[in-house]
Design a protein that fits this description.
The complex is a heterodimer of chains A (172) and B (762).
Chain A lengths: L4 E7 L2 E7 L5 H8 L18 E4 L2 E4 L12 E3 L12 H8 L9 H14 L5 H7 L11 H14 L10 H5 L1
Parallel strand pairs in A: 1-5
Antiparallel strand pairs in A: 1-2, 3-4, 3-5
Helix pairs in contact in A: 2-5
Chain B lengths: L1 E4 L24 H6 L14 E7 L5 E7 L1 H5 L3 E6 L10 H4 L2 H12 L4 E2 L5 E7 L2 H9 L2 E6 L6 H4 L14 E2 L2 E2 L6 E9 L2 H6 L3 E9 L11 E6 L5 E5 L4 H12 L6 E5 L14 H12 L3 E4 L2 H7 L6 E9 L5 E13 L6 H8 L7 E10 L13 H19 L3 H7 L19 H10 L1 H4 L7 E11 L3 E9 L5 E5 L7 H13 L6 E5 L16 H28 L6 E4 L2 E4 L2 E7 H6 L9 E8 L4 E12 L6 E11 L6 H20 L30 E7 L20 H13 L5 E2 L3 H8 L3
Parallel strand pairs in B: 1-29, 2-15, 11-30, 13-14, 17-18, 21-22, 28-29
Antiparallel strand pairs in B: 2-6, 3-5, 3-7, 4-6, 8-9, 10-18, 11-16, 12-13, 12-15, 16-17, 19-27, 20-21, 20-26, 23-24, 24-25, 27-28
Helix pairs in contact in B: 11-12, 12-20, 13-14, 16-17, 19-20
The chains are: A alpha+beta (172), B alpha+beta (762).
């Protein structure tokens, strides 16, 4: 216990505080300490993208970030996408395009897609395929995932301010 | 998507007019999966949970001289250490298991090695500790003394007399019995039809080729994970990410020598399986650790452990010889298949042999299959087990035959297509197949006639056959007072079967899909149900839910009869409404009757227990356009079309998902994937960095053409869909590479280096 470090951060808009070993990854902290098991461990070495989260809006593999590194920063995981108003347009598009099969890569896919659409609201198919190359999916062959992201790009344009940064949650 | 209906005269009842079947509703599991709520194997969290880790052999082949666990046990935070000593011994159970004792010993030894380790990654011992990190530290404190033995990882080298023997007492099994000479060739079978020599004598053109394919992995993103709770009352509960809760339970019962009734397996959501989660690995070890520790224990494999110590599919060596007349008729086919079984016997060479020439009417043929042990992990099932290497070999030879004769490759296949009553080389007879229809649809597809211009570009095709599976399934449908129903099945939902099964139940009950609430039961809650594998779930468990739905209707008809005072056999049911022939004024809906259950005799549960003994087959043709970079050897896929007979598409989006996903796995097998070994049997690429799966950037949009030739023995005419699409890609791509650069490929994966070698560039 003596070696553990106290970390304060915002996760999905909520202030959190936890103790972790200095060697524990953010992925481990999210899943085992904070109980946010939506973020998945597929390879634990940065090659599958299943553990993708946003760190201050930046797309990262949470298995390659240490838990202690998020001190004072903001993390968005798949659990932070939907709010009381319902699914985020990217989630909705993935449901509507049947882009989920086993669903294990899906949280990472959603986060990576959000990171793309946040910076490029209208990406081409080629751009989507290039951006998503860091997220492995073994079930779908990517076709429906790419279609879902293109559909989400269309609906995100009409979407009310982001729900996932927590400020809206506070307002409700 | 273009949809082709190929109705047949005798199947007028199967030609559609459905309310639910054929629609594309959102999947039941989709919202849980996009919000992170779905619980997979590694997500199980329990009070007092300990974390297990497995010590694995660093050697490909060695005798275990001693294992000292004292230091590991003394580490603070360690609660249990187990070795093979903790497993019930196979020798002690020979009397009961008889012939099965040998296989059981192999199964035990693969879970935790006893006398020898047979591959790098072979489990030797395991630790449960308060954190995964302490468990890992403890593994480093276990002292194992090995005596090294020479290893063999190549299937053909393993068959040589001089090869190191994995199992000193194993002879070769064949129809003649088991040979006395010890050998790594565990078995040999031979199938003969007609007179192959005569067939080749009748041929104008004969093509003979040899092929090699590498060991490949299913590549599911969720690693194996199991959580075991061994209660003080001796009852064991296991949360498992498995394709079959009941088979997992039965494997645990065998391995732990427990009555099956003492074990409850709760299937979690499964993060990809493709055949690789039929066998259990860590679940048994977690159970042993939990018994020792008196606390729940979870084991999650690392990615490298998944590569090294689960069940990838066979590397192979295949020789194919085929002959045809100038007029384009195949006269004979012959093949020798050598499949790696991994460390213990049991490769899928039989099913490879069973499907490789299946799409064609071939008068004379012979197939010899060899099951060979090597110092690699014991192979498991992978989507159409054994089929892809064999199909890839046969379809490349067929392409070359067509070329030599000067025929279009699809025309050649259509001319020789299997049809009703065609007898295959293994003796099985095709019935109700859509082989020709699929080929014809592919030939008519705009992709096949589209211009493909530019240097180093080529178009290839390949065709494939895969049989479905039936077997046992159990379902129960209970009626709620609000007119909805709860549908419980024993089939683990890998990729949308809760939805495809509920759609069949909705159709049978005349309800909307929203009125069906499907769930997957644990092993205490429903009858025995076979694994979700073999393209069987929507087919066989589908028949089970239809049977349960019909049982519900029969019981509700009796209630209506009682209410109306008419004989039950006068009540009929159509599209959600009960009527009686005795009184035209009497009519009630399913919902109205459901509301009256409590006043007419109580709850109603319909039961669908079934053992499906007849099932269909699914044929598929793939068309690919690609470009080869002559300087780097890199293949870029420009266009890809999948044509497949699915009988009837229950949920066309899910069907497309299977076709697209299978095709892309096949593309990975063709171009990128393969275990690489050094001479000592060390796997060189056990990470997703070095073992490359296709990414979104490597593949184009996969176009799907659903052909519907209904299978008449299923109430809705459906065929299993999942496996066929992985078969054609390697051959289609190899055939396209030939047209692009004029070189026939003979090894999988067809990496840039191998293509450049063939082109004479390097």
């Amino acid at each position: 216990m003596a070696n553990k470090t106290r970390v304060c951060a915002r996760v999905n808009g909520e202030q959190v505080e936890f103790l972790c070993e200095p060697y524990q990854s953010l992925l481990e902290c999210l899943r085992d300490i904070l109980g946010l098991t939506g973020t998945k461990d597929g390879c634990n070495d940065g090659n599958c993208g299943a553990c993708s989260v946003l760190l201050d809006g930046q797309l990262v593999n949470s298995c390659l970030v240490l838990g202690v590194e998020i001190e004072g920063r903001e993390v968005t995981t798949v659990e932070g996408l939907a709010d009381w108003r319902g699914l985020h347009p990217i989630q909705l598009a993935v449901v509507e395009e049947d882009a989920v099969q086993c669903g294990y890569c899906t949280p990472g896919i959603l986060i990576a897609a959000k990171a793309l659409l946040d910076r490029e609201p209208n990406p081409s198919e080629r751009r989507i395929r290039t951006w998503m190359a860091g997220n492995l999916c073994r079930c779908t062959g990517y076709d429906k995932i790419v279609r879902a992201i293109m559909r989400a790009a269309r609906s995100c344009a009409q979407y009310d301010p982001p729900l996932y940064n927590g400020r809206n949650k506070a307002r409700r | 998507m273009r949809k082709k209906e190929t109705g047949r005269a005798d199947q007028s009842t199967l030609t559609g007019g459905y309310a639910v079947i054929g629609t594309r509703p959102p999947r039941y599991d989709a919202v849980d999966k996009v919000t992170g709520r779905a619980l997979y194997g590694p997500d199980i969290r329990l009070p007092g949970l300990l974390h297990g880790k497995v010590l694995r052999s660093p050697h490909a082949h060695a005798r275990i001289l001693s294992i000292d666990t004292t230091c590991a046990e003394a580490l603070p935070g360690v609660y249990a250490v187990v070795t093979a000593e903790d497993l019930p011994r196979a020798e002690d159970r020979r009397a009961r298991l008889g012939e099965g004792a040998v296989n059981f010993k192999y199964l035990c030894d693969n879970i935790l090695a006893s006398a020898k380790v047979l591959y790098v990654g072979h489990a030797v011992a395991a630790v449960a500790a308060s954190t995964p990190h302490i468990a890992e530290q403890a593994l480093a404190l276990i002292d194992v003394e090995y005596s090294l033995l020479p290893a063999v990882v190549d299937v053909l080298e393993a068959t040589r007399d001089t090869a190191p023997l994995l199992h000193e007492h194993m002879g070769t099994r064949s129809l003649a019995g088991e040979s006395r000479t010890p050998s790594n060739t565990a078995s040999h079978f031979q199938q003969v039809k007609g007179d192959p020599e005569k067939g080749f004598a009748e041929a104008d053109v004969v093509v003979e080729r040899e092929f090699r394919t590498a060991t490949v992995h299913q590549g599911y993103i969720e690693p194996h994970a199991g959580t075991a709770i061994w209660g003080a009352d001796g009852r064991l509960t296991v949360y498992a990410t498995t394709q079959g809760a009941f088979t997992a339970r039965d494997q645990l019962a065998e391995l732990l020598d427990l009555p099956m009734s003492r074990i409850r397996v709760v299937p979690t959501e499964v993060g990809g399986a493709f055949g690789g989660k039929v066998t259990t690995y860590v679940e048994t070890v977690a159970a042993l650790l939990s018994r020792r520790a008196g606390r729940p224990v979870k084991i999650v494999m690392s990615r490298s452990e998944v590569f090294l110590a689960s069940g990838p599919t066979s590397g192979t060596a295949i020789r194919v010889k085929m002959g045809a007349t100038r007029a384009g008729r195949i006269t004979a086919a012959q093949a020798e298949l050598y499949y790696e079984a991994g460390a213990y016997p049991g490769s899928p060479v039989g099913s490879g042999a069973g499907v490789m020439f299946g799409p064609y009417d071939i008068p004379h043929g012979q197939i010899d299959g060899y099951d060979v042990v090597v110092n690699k992990p014991k192979t498991g099932s992978y989507r159409a087990p054994g089929g892809t290497p064999a199909n890839s070999a046969a379809e490349q030879v067929i392409d070359e035959l067509a070329e030599r004769i000067g025929m279009d490759p699809l025309e050649f296949r259509m001319l020789n297509s299997a049809k009703e009553g065609t007898r295959q080389i293994d003796g099985a007879v095709h019935t109700h197949i859509g082989c020709y229809e699929v080929l014809e649809t592919a030939r008519e597809h705009p992709h096949y006639s589209a211009p493909l211009e530019g240097p180093h570009r080529g178009r290839g095709v390949a065709h494939a056959y895969w049989g479905n599976w039936g077997a046992q399934s159990s379902s129960a449908i209970s009626v709620n007072a609000d007119g909805t129903v709860a549908m419980v099945t024993g089939s683990v939902d890998l990729t949308g079967t809760r939805t495809s099964l509920a759609m069949q139940a909705a159709e049978a009950l005349g309800l909307t899909l929203e009125q069906i609430v499907p769930s997957v039961a644990d092993t205490d809650s429903i009858g025995y149900t076979e694994v979700s594998a073999g393209s069987r779930t929507t087919v066989a468990t589908g028949q089970s839910v239809v049977k349960a739905a019909r049982d519900v209707i029969a019981q509700m008809s009796e209630r209506a009869a009682t209410l109306w005072g008419v004989p039950a056999d006068t009540v009929s049911f159509h599209r959600g409404t009960f009527t009686t022939g005795q009184d035209a004024t009497k009519s009630t809906t399913f919902g109205e009757l459901a509301a009256m259950l409590s006043r007419t005799g109580g709850p109603i549960t319909g039961v669908g227990n079934i053992d499906v003994q007849e099932w269909g087959a699914a044929f598929g043709t793939h068309i690919v356009d690609l470009e080869v970079d002559p300087e780097t050897g890199k293949v870029t896929i420009l266009r890809y079309t999948v044509v497949q007979d699915v009988g009837r598409a229950i949920h066309p989006s899910e069907v497309e998902g299977q076709m697209q996903g299978g095709a892309v796995q096949g593309i990975g097998w063709a171009l990128y994937e393969g275990y690489q070994y050094d001479e000592g049997g060390q796997m060189l690429n056990p990470t997703f960095l070095d073992y490359k799966l296709p990414t979104a950037l490597d593949v184009p949009s996969i176009e799907c053409v659903i052909v519907e030739v209904p299978y008449p023995k299923h109430p809705y005419g459906i065929r299993g869909v999942g496996e066929t699409p992985i078969l054609p890609p390697p051959a289609a791509i190899a055939n396209a590479i030939y047209r692009a650069v004029g070189r026939r490929m003979d090894r999988l994966p067809m990496t840039p280096g191998r293509i450049l070698e063939k082109m004479g560039v390097i």
